[in-house]
Amino acid sequence: MTPVQRPVSPAERRVSMALLALLPLIALAVYLKGQRYDPATFSLDPAFLDEPGIGAAGLLRLDDLAAAVADAAWQADGGVEHFTADTLYEKIDGRADIYLANGVRTLQFVSFTDGQSFIDIFLYDMTTPEQASAMLAVERPPDAPAGDLGGDSYRADASRFFREGRYYVQVIASESSDRLAAVGLRLAQTVAARVRAGSPPVPMDSR
Amino acid sequence: MTDDTADRREFLKQVSRTGLALAGASLGAWWLHNRPTAVEATPVTLPRYDVLLGAGDPRLAIAHGTSVDTMVRAAVEALGGMSRFVVRGDTVLIKPNVAFDRPPALASTTHPDILRAVIRLCREAGARVLVADNPINSPEGAFHRSGIKAAAEEEGAVVRYPRPGMFETVRLGGVVLETWPVFYEPLREATKVIGIAPTKDHNLCGASLTMKNWYGLLGGARNLLHQKIDDVIADLASLVRPTLVFLDATRMLMTNGPTGGRLSDVVAGDTIVCGVDQVAVDAYGATRLGRDPQDLGYLRHAQARGLGALRWQSLNPRELTV
Amino acid sequence: MNITKTRLAFQVFFVGLFLFLAFVTAFDRLKGFPVSLFLELDPLVGIGTSLTTHSLYRGLLWALPVVLLTLVLGRVFCGWVCPFGAIHHLIGWLSVRRSSPQQQVEGNRYRRINAFKYYLLVAFGAAALLGTLQIGLLDPIVTFYRSLSTAVWPTVDQATGSIFLRPPAYRLSWVFGSLFGLLLVLNVGWPRFFCRVLCPLGALMGLLGRFAWWRIDRDPAKCTDCDLCLKACEGAADPQSHLRKAECFVCMNCLNDCQYGAISFRFLPSVTREVAHPDLRRRHVLLGALAGVLFYPLSRASGELTKNFDKAVIRPPGSLAEPEFLARCTKCEQCLRVCPTNVLQPTLFEAGLEGFWTPVMNNRMGYCELNCVLCGQVCPTGAIERISLDRKLGLGEYRDRPIKVGTAFFDRGRCLPWAMDTHCVVCEEVCPTSPKAIFTRPVEVVSRNGTTLTLKQPYVDLERCTGCGICEYACPVKDLAGVRVTAIGETRSADRTLLLN
Question: Which of the residues A33, C45, C136, C158 could staple to C142 if both were Cys, CB 3.0 to 4.6 A apart?
Answer without folding.
Answer: C136
